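Help wanted!
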Amino acid sequence: MWKGIVLTLELTLSSWILALVLGTALATVRMTNHRLAKIVVGCFVAYHRNVPMLVQIMMWYFALPSLLPDSIQLWINQFNGEFLYSVIAIGLCMAAYVSEDIRSGLRAIPYGQFEASRALGLSYIRSMRFVILPQAMRIAVPPLINHTVLLFKNTSLAMAIGVAELTYATRQIENYTFRTFEAYFVASVWYLALSLALMGAGALLARHYRIPGSK
Amino acid sequence: MIIFTDVNKWYGSYHALVNVNAQVKRGQVVVVCGPSGSGKSTLIRTVNRLEDIQDGQIAFDGQDVNAAGLDLNRFRARVGFVFQQFNLFPHLSVLENIILSPTRVNGLKRNLAKEKALILLERVGLSSKADSYPGQLSGGQQQRVAIARALAMDPPAMLFDEPTSALDPEMVGEVLNVMKSLARDGMTMMCVTHEMGFAREVADQVWFMDAGVILEKSEPEKFFTHPEHPRAQRFLSDLRSH
Amino acid sequence: MFEILYNYWDLLLLGQYPSGPLGGLSITLILSLLGLGLAFPVSILLALARISPMPAVRIPATVVVYVVRGIPLIMVIFWVYFFLPLLIGRTITGFTTMLCTLVIYQSAYLSEVIRAGIEALPKGQIEASRALGLGYFRTLRFVILPQALYNMMPSMISQFVSTIKETSLGYVINVPEITFAANQVNNQLLTQPLAVFSILALVYFLLCFSFTELADYIERRITRKREGKHKKIKSAKPAKSGYIAMSTATVSKENS
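Answered by r_m:
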């Protein structure tokens, strides 16, 4: 079971980093107000929000390899293909949610803030860096925490394609030892503890960066 | 100091500023008034290019505002602008709000900037609030901090866009007092405001605008007692009737 | 892709019916509707328990919600799969397992939505209703819940969309919903996985996207209606002044 936990954490971390980086990039691209950019990002987000996570994983694992030439398929499968596909699937899906969170954070900042910083002589980039983004990130943190916990729980779906994370490991243990209740109980406790830890860490983060005097 | 020459601006087909020709001389205080939608805010915002013009010239301290090679950020840092909605940065303390631009745009050292900021806070009467955050201050206090923030760049002139319109009545006085003391110290000021008492006390000229045109420019006493233009007469009587 | 649809539409839509149990898209929809429908009353009770002034009711409810929200859906499925038969003493179908799982899972999430809706109402509503003499439960029934549920309709439709997506996990315990059916098709064809799964993704996309747009539409209507209500109140004033004029008229008559 311990290996399962470790693999779950590896999955979570890899997908999370991918989601954060890609999500920020998507949000930035969307902000450029270029028509094509907005349509492309909009479609990306709509696909990932409306198609179930499991189906997305299946798309990556079953459907995509048929597009790649055989040599690349073999090469990927050598390097733990299931893990890679899960990370990509979960990371991309969560990137869509992250970009939406950042976008709503940016939209919540009144335009007057931007005007004021420009009127003081700060350039576009400096205005973003010192005035807009610090405020937008603070607003985006609570939904980001929620989505991080969601990402963590979604790693359990990787078991459907054979990734030996916690849920898969639990099933195996249950198959070998028939101690069903204990196996699932321990696994549930682990999931619960880690979820609560994530939420707690997020709450601490939100409290640390709270703006004094805000409601 | 500020010279408008044949300035015209359109929003699509709407002619927002019509052939504006006017001057604010060094050390003068000019009050711009008029009904809503007359273009007074638009006019003042063209000086630091928060709004652009399609025709004409605007010169600020000898510099053509719309010149091709102008470093816009450095230029804006020289124009002091105070907004109606204060627009303080809520995630920075009062002190940090004031030193942000001097340190980042002008490259002033942090400790020097802080010393200067404290002097300015003293001037607007808020030295005890240096480490407070905007969310903890009243509207009048926030606007005074905004004035200090604009002054921190040592601008040759200050622009005020309806600085007291968003304030509760009892706080209007404290902000106007700061503006009056600035005027008495010889600051060149261009104010869009409805506060006629302020205009009578410190303004050197009052410009009356309607529908994008400056209809009248006169001394405050003359404007308030014997306005020439009929539109101005109507505006003043509306203002007095409530 | 279209040949696949043409050849397998019955499997994808109806499963093995009529020569076997119902499956495919029909089961997906039935599961979602039943799941959310049954979860609805449970979630209302859970929400009320979470805001109850009595700790004996509030604390267990909070614990239940946190636990269900803290573990992945798959785990909940397995818990129900293994332990529900033990509880009621007989084996149950995959469909029933999935249904119970969805009811439990969605009750927890839906209760949070309803709780948010209740807490978003101005306190004045409760105060006014109690001042009129309505007791705790009557206040809830006639004043609080109708408003909270109406305001939270867009969020509840979002939860329905989530439920549709969650039915796809029935694949893991061989519930014959559309994801399972698509996999069956893929196992038969073997050479066109992209086409098969694209169809699957498209079906979910169309379904979920339409309901999400519906939720947005309702949200806009609700916001517009709220602003409209303020305008209606203003037009009621002239009638009042008429009444006051009448009463002053009577007073002045008395004085003279």
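OP: Thanks! One thing I noticed: The first helix of chain B runs from residue 40 to 47.
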